[in-house]
Amino acid sequence: MNHYTVGMAGHIDHGKTTLTKALTNIETDRLKEEKERSISIELGYAPLKLTDEMEVSLIDVPGHERFIRQMIAGVAGIDLVMLVVAADEGVMPQTREHIDILRLLGIENGIIVVTKMTRVDDEMREIVELDIREAIEGTFLEKSRLYFVDSLSSMGIDDLKKGIASELQGRPSRDAGGAFRLPIDQVFTIHGQGTVVRGTVYEGVVNEGDVLDLLPKRIPVRARQLQVHHQSRMNVRAGQRVAINVGGVAKEEIKRGDVLVASGHYETTQTIDVGLMTVENLLFPLKQRSAIKLHIGTAEVYGKIVFFDRNELIDGNERIVCQIRLDEPIVTRRGDRFILRRPTPMETIGGGIVIDPHGEKYRFGEQTIEMLEQKMDATPIERLQQLLLDHKSLSLKDASKELNMTEVEMKELVNEGEQTYQLPTGEITSEKVVRSLKESFQMELERYHKDYPFRIGIKKAEMVQSYTHTYPKRLLEWLLVEGHKQGWFVISGPFAALPSHIPHAPKQWEKRVEHVLTSIKNEGLQVTPIAQHLAAQQLPIVLHEEVNHYLYQQELLYQIDEKLSIHREPFREAVTKLKAETEEVFTLKEAKDSTGLSRKYLVPFLEKLDKLGLTIRQEQERKWRVDEVENWLGNKS
């Protein structure tokens, strides 16, 4: 089953909604105002049954100038467009603007449907056809076939259906590779069900039960139920029109333009580098840092345009590279198409492609222009590096799909490049990603060692968890292992540290910690609570736990119960003496005679031997684990 989205475009009242009903038997005007005024205000959707191998969603796009933003949201991401022109009116202003928008959005496939044919004679039909051919000359629609229909009488509808099927036949449906992304164009609630969002899946696959992120607010949600045209599905893929019942978020927290994405795979941005193609006839010059309105996916965001080679854009029909700085964050990636409009007076400025979704501040001048053009015309290896910067790590299969390459070509590209790492899982990442993450880890460890100098290091699990919102977990875990091999980090059990770090008492507390150790050492085996020693040296209470951890981790002290700790030297001497004075199995009384300890100290002392693995308790006796004792005493000598 291949999945396609077919959109309609055209001037108001040229019969798009009536044509949709004729093709699908579904009325897409749902709102009371739409029915009263007989115009479409919101996007309309309907399933179009063509063949058993095709699942097609038909999008009815509003034609009125006031609703141009809905139109842009509707046609973004479609596979085929039907340009609708009424036979009794011909090409109108909105027809031309829609053609411009379709061209700027990179739509490449289309057909033309002439409606209301019962209202005109043969002569008028010829005039309309000439009018249309003139309007589409030089556009992607130039060689498109014209279909003449009348929606009310169903004249030509069957031929049109066959024509749509023919256009889609053999055309690959949208690639479902990559992480799931769904720009939202509708949000509503259903009684007893909760919040529902609708949209066309741009990328990837979503399964019922998946945990997703709602961006840009980054709210975690769960896909509780999925429907395609009111039919429940367990999963939905790129190219399909879907309604998702989302748990964990209220309707008021979502708006058109928000994006549902696979958790942890996308970031937001407010600065994008773009390649912009302007329309042929600009009404007014566009000055440096002029206010603009960006339409991308289903989002509509205000911002300003920044030029690097001019202070004013006067001529139309020009391709330039520039930057858009937005007032609100959006979700996008390299290669996404967009439309740029002027907020006032309203007009379409142009459209183009996102070169870099995370632009930076650049200097005005030719050097920046050259850099942006190089980004736009990047080589395959450069594109791969940018892809890996966006995704952090990818399987060869997903990377090849993203770059429209075969897996064999991708393997050759990876083998040729010296800037790529291959993970044990088979995924690849870039040298830039590894370097950036390594530096982040090193800075994180440096801060941690500064804040907690007593500690051996940070727990690896904590380290990984703090970065999983940006990086895949498997990449983070691999980097810790690889970093240990390369000498970037030191992994000691569950802890990670910098090679230069040695747990220590800060200079201001060093002497007091030494005095604590000395006083405990002088007490031998019959010690007073460690808290008393810490208080006697006037160490702040907030440091007590840190000092304790440090002394235990460095094995300067052995904790025998919650309050009591013995210095390592008298502890080792006691173990050595007890081992020498007893057989392989010894009793509590023999231990008491050897150590001279009362039961208060003796029992926790012996239990500590059990915990260290030096002895095994056998009812009222204990048995030495000879090899372990010799090894332990040897390591401590």
Automatic annotation (TrEMBL):
Domain Tr-type G: 1-173
GO biological process: selenocysteine incorporation
Single GO MF descriptor: translation elongation factor activity
Subcellular location: Cytoplasm
Chief location: cytoplasm
InterPro entries: Beta-barrel_SelB (IPR057335), EF-Tu_GTPase (IPR050055), EFTu-like_2 (IPR004161), Elong_fac_SelB-wing-hlx_typ-2 (IPR015190), P-loop_NTPase (IPR027417), SelB_WHD4 (IPR015191), Small_GTP-bd (IPR005225), T_Tr_GTP-bd_dom (IPR000795)
A Pfam family matched in the record: WHD_3rd_SelB
Function: Translation factor necessary for the incorporation of selenocysteine into proteins. It probably replaces EF-Tu for the insertion of selenocysteine directed by the UGA codon. SelB binds GTP and GDP.
Protein name per the record: Selenocysteine-specific elongation factor
Organism expressing this protein natively: Halalkalibacter okhensis
